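User: Hey, my collaborator sent me this sequence without any context and asked if I could get a structure. I don't really work with proteins. Can you help?
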Amino acid sequence: MKKLYVAAALALLGAACIFEPVPQAPKLGEVRLPIAAQQDTLWVSSDYQGKPLLIAVMGSWCPYCKMSIPALNAVAEAYGDKIEVVGAFVDEDAQEVAEVAKAHGMTVKALYNGGELAQYLQAEGFPHMVLFDKKHRLVKKWEGFSPNREQDFRLYLDKLVK
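Assistant: No problem. I've predicted the 3D structure and written it out in structure-token form, which is a compact way to encode the shape of the chain:
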């Protein structure tokens, strides 16, 4: 009987080593980025406490980022002031970002100088979309372009804006 208890204890210990605890969802810290169309104005994430945030990390040279703009515009329009949607470009040139935003009909705020934010959000490719809940805790990440991205966003946003 003693051997059975020892075997059971070893099995439980082995199982505990295999399954690591799930880390707590990271929370977005204070983000302050300049708005491309208004270079003297900063977008500050804490101004949107109580609202879900959808941040798209982008590059002005990225064709897939440009193809994602309609999905960002659509969810921003559909959910109105219940959410905040921004495009955070890694570019350091405000004029270039503003031109891309205008040329592609971007209605959400186009931020620039978002390189550090891209690193913090662990963007491995562009576009890199990240959704945070009302307390700015990470909910979901998407990498790359998908023609179904708007539906993907809505699936999560419908639950967050209740």
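In plain terms: Confidence is low (pLDDT under 50) at residues 3-24. You can pass these tokens on to your collaborator as they are.
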